Automatic annotation (TrEMBL):
GO molecular function annotations of the record: demethylase activity; oxidoreductase activity
BP GO annotations: demethylation
Cofactor requirement: Fe(2+)
Protein known as: Isopenicillin N synthase-like Fe(2+) 2OG dioxygenase domain-containing protein
Length: 305
């Protein structure tokens, strides 16, 4: 149904509201793929066979053959309880905009045309000051010490709307290697499937970029042992409440990621952070355009209630 709808969905994307009102088949269900599932364990940085992302909690008593999956870093309890609760309270003092597939959003960043490769400042004026402490905490994480946020997006997933997000790779013309998520309110799962569309998402540019992050973040068991890499498996990546997730490298570019409707059982909010590609940094072809936005991205503003 290629129409805009009052719920915020358009094109082939749907939520529970428009599926009921317009009798549209659901697009938020699990993909029917003939491949095995493995679960990423943030404690040993390896994957093990499993159907439920919560199976990582059995660590160190995993079963099955371990596999190495490059490009995921998870820090549990990145926020403490007080930080988490104050952040949610302040986010909910701000208006939420309708988005597709049952989501709502609050977006702070430049205007991007990914297909046309056009970028402009738009009405971007920086980020809400009550979120500044999150970016400050990034400096305490070795993989993020030089991370300059260019876009910050709050996304709300509500099971009453059947919220989900379709499989995708974040655009590679504007957004750099590290994709950062801070998970709030409830546990969730990121489902990773091998990318079948190497010509989409401006992926053709990636080969010209220097690596921001090495193949591994820190020494762990997968460094010390000759462990086979993931091939074509579906990877379930847990996103515990209050955790930090950084996606980079192979996980960032070789896999599409999505969130299934069935994995949203309580209200979930996340803060998603993105950085520039080298094109917009010093020495890049679009440095002058990028500098204006980078300067604005260092500003924070107070919310007037």
């Amino acid at each position: 149904m290629n129409t805009n709808r009052p719920c915020g969905c358009k094109g082939y994307r749907t939520c529970l509201n428009c599926e009921t009102e317009f009798s549209i088949p659901s697009t938020g269900e699990e993909p029917k793929l003939n491949t095995t599932k493995v679960v990423y364990c943030p404690y040993c940085n390896l994957c093990y066979p499993g159907k439920d992302a919560n199976s990582y909690k059995s660590h160190p008593n995993h079963s099955g053959k371990p596999l190495r999956y490059e490009g995921i870093y998870i820090q549990e309890d990145f926020l403490d309880d007080l930080e988490h609760d104050r952040l949610i309270e302040n986010l909910d003092l701000m208006p939420w905009d309708l988005s597709q597939s049952g989501r709502r959003k609050q977006n702070f960043g430049p205007k991007c045309n990914f297909k046309g490769r056009k970028l402009r400042l738009g009405d971007f004026k920086g980020f809400p000051s009550f979120t500044k402490f999150v970016q400050d905490k990034f400096r305490q994480v070795p993989i993020l010490q030089d991370f300059q946020t260019i876009e910050q997006c709050s996304l709300e997933y509500d099971p009453e709307r059947g919220a989900s997000i379709d499989p995708h790779v974040d655009d590679c013309w504007v957004w750099g290697e590290r994709i950062v998520t801070v998970n709030l309110l409830s546990d969730s799962v990121l489902l990773m499937t091998p990318n079948q569309y190497p010509k989409k998402y401006n992926l053709d540019l990636v080969k010209s970029y220097p690596k921001t992050v090495g193949n591994r973040v820190a020494s762990n068991v997968s460094d010390m042992l000759d462990i086979e890499k993931i091939q074509d498996e579906i990877v379930l990546v847990p996103m515990p409440k209050k955790s930090l997730l950084v996606m980079y490298g192979s996980a960032r570019y070789d896999y599409e990621h999505r969130i299934l409707r069935d994995d949203i059982v309580e209200r979930r909010v996340c803060l998603a952070y993105r950085e520039f590609t080298p094109i917009f940094l010093q020495g890049g072809d679009c440095f002058e355009d990028g500098r204006v936005i980078t300067d604005k991205a260092k500003e924070f503003f107070d919310i007037i209630s």
